[in-house]
């Protein structure tokens, strides 16, 4: 049974088990541009206790560089090496696993600057994405219908500017069987302040359905992302805890990786969702919010 953190002793006992914490971002640290209560204090406290902090987000709209700027706005100094985003995971997958041949080395992006920037970082040329010409209404005269024969893959992720034009051109590439199909992540929804919005998975599902294809999904819970994080930071997974707000991505990612798990209720899930699960599928711990760690220790 999942244990709720409600007292100082419980928090101390929880913290004593782990040296490394992997934090999901949307719904755990912040909701869009709103930082959640006592998050800064909690992260600062954990750092002062000598804990290693790593940030693992499925939100592909920003690159690791752009995330460092977002952290900075909240007064938190976090390096790009401490951040793993699904845009980065997808770029690394393309570069190291999918290995596109030279003549098919470009990528069509259904998504935002995070994906474009991470692809550029690993030396991959991208098309589509944030190109403003795609904001225009789709017609059969679209210049993008002249497909680039050098495109060898589609990467699809969260895109708040998604429209019929972008979906239509993405489909044209996906109808080519030799073009690989990569999804940054599978989240059906994500939390914003006061509302739940359609997530990357809901957008990707549209072109997956139209093309009859299933993408390789690179973000949480894919354990390739976990292995990349462990390879970079070299921590003991048994002494690490995944903190998240979603069961089928964050908690599965932690559980499958052999980490401890803490679910916070500031994003997607509710306490009823936890209790509806088999004991073996429940997170080890849950809390109303991440900031409870700081508040309960006072
Ligand atoms: O739809 C998305 O891309 C995701 O729901 C979302 O942004 C998740 O981000 P995370 O909670 O992993 O930080
Ligand atoms: Mg989240």
Automatic annotation (TrEMBL):
The active site is at 24 (nucleophile), 26 (proton donor). Gene3D superfamilies: HAD superfamily/HAD-like. Its EC number is 3.1.3.41. Mg(2+) binds at residues 24, 26, 245. Divalent metal ions. Mg(2+) is the most effective. It is an enzyme of class 3 (hydrolase). Substrate binds at residue 220. It comes from Kuraishia capsulata CBS 1993. GO terms for cellular component: cytoplasm. Its cofactor is Mg(2+). GO terms for molecular function: alkaline phosphatase activity; metal ion binding; phosphoglycolate phosphatase activity. Keywords: Hydrolase, Magnesium, Metal-binding. This is 4-nitrophenylphosphatase. It catalyses: 4-nitrophenyl phosphate + H2O = 4-nitrophenol + phosphate + H(+).
